[in-house]
UniProtKB/TrEMBL annotation:
UniProt catalytic activity: Endohydrolysis of (1->4)-beta-D-glucosidic linkages in cellulose, lichenin and cereal beta-D-glucans
Name used for this protein in its record: cellulase
UniProt-listed InterPro entries: 6-hairpin_glycosidase_sf, 6hp_glycosidase-like_sf, Glyco_hydro_9
Enzyme Commission number, as recorded: 3.2.1.4
Span of domain Glycoside hydrolase family: 30-205
Gene Ontology BP terms: cellulose catabolic process
Enzyme class, spelled out: hydrolase
UniProt KW keywords: Carbohydrate metabolism, Cellulose degradation, Glycosidase, Hydrolase, Polysaccharide degradation, Signal
GO MF, one example: cellulase activity
Family membership noted in the UniProt record: Belongs to the glycosyl hydrolase 9 (cellulase E) family.
């Protein structure tokens, strides 16, 4: 199944644009805009939510993702306003978030920590999606059944089919973007968590090859 357009990634691009103009703009509260952009990602979180989750109306969801394929695919981000997890836009989003922190982290102020957490929420999932050699899980959920049923993820009862690419079912675009996300995030954590950074970089190199 082809990935959806990169809808969920838009806020990551917005973060970059906001930071580019923040230094010269004084008429608007861009720090508040940045905070709300990052809050968007917390609202899109799937899986078991942490104690410091700021979007309190969200709760744990999709706690058995990947079970049908015998793997753990819990976590990550839902796409746009639905309950599907698409690997391509999620990886692109994680790449953009990582480069936002790398290039503009020093100007993020109190939101830097939350931005770093947003990156890690994405990479933790991408590590799960690439845990099997030669396989990348690229989607969880069935788009048809999901888009025909409007319900919050905490209550969803639609199919949670796991889709993958491998040697017999290639997908170089999503595989490459997943490797890019892991590699970019490894820079984010190079000094913050060297061990985690090495895991990300090694997986990126392994996935690229």
């Amino acid at each position: 199944m082809a990935p959806k357009p990169l809808t969920v990634s838009s806020p990551a691009v917005i973060i970059i644009i906001l930071l580019l103009f923040a230094a010269s703009a004084t008429a608007h509260d861009y720090s508040d805009a940045l905070r709300k952009c990052i809050l968007f990602f917390e609202g899109q979180r799937s899986g078991e939510l942490p104690a410091d989750q700021r979007v309190k109306w969200r709760s744990h969801s999709a706690l058995h993702d990947g079970a049908s394929a015998g793997v753990d695919l819990t976590g990550g981000y839902y796409d746009a306003g639905d309950n599907i997890k698409f690997g391509f836009p999620m990886a692109f989003t994680t790449t953009m978030l990582a480069w936002s922190v790398i290039d503009f982290g020093k100007t993020m102020g109190s939101e830097l920590g939350n931005a770093v957490k947003a990156v890690k929420w994405g990479t933790d999932y991408l590590l799960k999606a690439t845990a099997t050699d030669g396989v990348v899980y690229v989607q969880v959920g069935d788009a048809i059944s999901d888009h025909n049923c409007w319900e919050r993820p905490e209550d969803m009862d639609t199919l949670r089919t796991a889709y993958k690419i491998d040697r017999n079912h290639p997908g170089s675009d999503v595989a490459g973007e997943t490797a890019a996300a892991l590699a970019a995030a490894s820079i984010v954590f190079r000094s913050r968590d060297p061990g985690y950074s090495r895991i990300l970089l090694n997986r990126a190199v392994k996935g690229k090859s």
